[in-house]
Amino acid sequence: MLLVCNGAQKSGSTWLYNILTSLVECRSPERHYLTGNSNNPCIRPDMLAEFLQSADLGADNFISKNHLDKPVYRDLLVANDAAYVFDIERDPKDVVVSMFYDARNRHGYDRSFSKYYWTHAREMVAGLEAYHALWREAGPRCHVASYEGLKTDFPAQVRAIAAVLGITLTESDIARLHAETSMDKLRKKYSRDALYTGEKFFRKGIVGDWENHFDESTLQDIESILKSGIRKFDRHHIAYRIRHWLNRRLGK
Fold first, then answer.
1. Strand 142-146 relative to strand 62-65: parallel, antiparallel, unpaired?
2. Domain ranges within the chain, ordered by starting residue
3. Among the listed ranges 86-100, 189-203, 237-251, which one has the minimum average pLDDT value?
4. How does DSSP assign 21-70, residue by residue?
5. Rounded to a whole number, what is the distance in angstroms from the first to the last CA of the chain?
6. Looking at the predicted structure, is the pLDDT value of residue 198 above 50?
7. Are 39 and 193 in contact (CB under 8 A)?
8. Sign of the alpha-carbon torsion through 129, 135, 140, 146
């Protein structure tokens, strides 16, 4: 079978990936199917159809960590009885905070949180609900886990994940999974990796850290976006599109 860990960015997908690899012994797809810029195996979206046609999913267990966000990929995976997709949701406000520190710690962003929100993050927020909706109703082999749920009721969440694969967990199984995928364990696991660099990639990981970052204006804006999306003639959106166009023209 193929397990696709397909959580949205900065929503706990690396945690979910490690839970899945602790549940099922998997191997990576062959190198020519993979992107070259990911620490964990990641099937190239343009190679997904070929992989599903050529791989013997009945004889081997494969895993891929992706961020697939288009119906064409969903339809390819749903049509294959040996493919399972696992998404993970997280409070969008905490996702924004995590993205901000990722940009600052790993990519040298040196502006304020407010500046980051108005110039970058709100565009991502607008697409989060559509991303999760794509997988939430995709069928019994697609499961959407909860980051907050893993924090507050880990046993219930991992039992639900395992049940999709027909696996029943004992209390000792759950204790082992919890220990193997703890934040400290993941920091140590990825501490020498140039892409993740342990502490920089896995920061606090707490629920509700957004309260220390959002002010009244950013909070009102994100709640409006989550409810109604971004308006067509929103000035921040227009500025974002112009910057995006200029960066593409300049090759940035």
1. unpaired
2. 2-249
3. 189-203
4. HHHS--BPPPGGGB-SS-SS--B-GGGHHHHHHHS-TTT--EEEE----S
5. 39
6. no
7. yes
8. negative
Pick from 106, 99, 57, 105: which is nearest to 77 by CA? 57
pLDDT above 90 for 186: no
Tokens encoding 210: 């957004």
Q: Encoding tokens for residue 50?
A: 């070929």
Question: Is residue 64 exposed (0-12), middle (13-18) or buried (19+ Cβ within 10 Å)?
Answer: buried
| pTM attached to this predicted model | 0.85
As a CATH number, domain 2-249 is 3.40.50.300
Residues 15 and 93: their CA atoms lie apart, in Å, by 19
Q: Which residue has the tokens 């709100």?
A: 122
